[in-house]
Amino acid sequence: MTPITEHVGSVHAEIDLAALRHNFSVVRKHAPSAGVMAVVKSLAYGHGAVQVSHALADTADALAVARIEEGLALRDAGLELPVVVLEGPGRAEDLEAAFTHDLELSIHHESQLPLLREYADEPVDCWLKLDTGMHRLGFPVEQAERLFEELKHMPSVASLRVMTHLACADDLSDQATVRQLQRLHDATAGIDTEFSIANSAGILAWPASHADWVRPGLMLYGASPVIGKTAEAFGLRPVMTLKAPLIAINELQVGDSVGYGATWQAPEAMSMGVVGIGYGDGYPRHIGAGAQVLLNGQRVPVVGRVSMDMITVDLRGVEAQVGDSVTLWGSGLPADEVAAWADTIAYTLFCGVTARVERRYLD
Question: How far apart are CA 91 and CA 111, in angstroms?
Fold first, then answer.
């Protein structure tokens, strides 16, 4: 066995902001009459909330985050677009922060109503969130008109709009979305305000869900939100391309095992490559059989167990040398495909890329 162990290059994620803006244009194409609230929670699905928000600042109508702290970070970075906090307030200080920093709040639970009743400062813009079938956050939809009237007349509430969330829009064969839309229509017939319903799957597959505001998340980042449909089929482009260097090439003999647990053995004399990335960077440890990476334009199999800092790949049939760049997902290797090998979804790949991975922004 003759190892070559020179370390070169670095692990990094290339974030293609032109692809991001292109994907935003796909949202506009599908929902031309709706306001677009770009979802940048969880560090914009691992892409960098501040950078993504600045890239969309001239085109998006609003931004959405999960938590107050995420909204404050955007304000600290100079973002002036409307920012909606989807989890809303959990304490009185959240209302004060929302007013001071011009954040809009989702009101989705009975425990938030006393906060609004007792809040004595300037009013804040709010969204009444209704549960039409997700059964996660939201008031029972049957209470919609009563709650809307109650909130509308609270001194602490400035503007008031309505939102709900779709549970099964990713599945075109499931009629749950139709039922959710009907429940919302029936329960809010007497409410005159703006509505937000559609997530990425709703935007692409359920036009009746577009309403006044759409909330694209995953599709902005170039992955498919619809089961059985590729991102390419929707004209979406990958925004994140995760890359790492080939840091060693070893020559194996037949029967040589590779990695922890000796779970894989060389079927013949062959070259094996070591790539400088692992689960400590966010590459899924439980990647399954059939997983591949992209090396010099060719797909090569991942073999053995994923380590914290390294993976190993089968180099049979490919010309390679230490220092070559390896693509883990992104341009040329869709994240949706990699996610399927790991029995997960593209969301978890993007959000799981750790802080030690450098983000390089391409405009």
Answer: 9
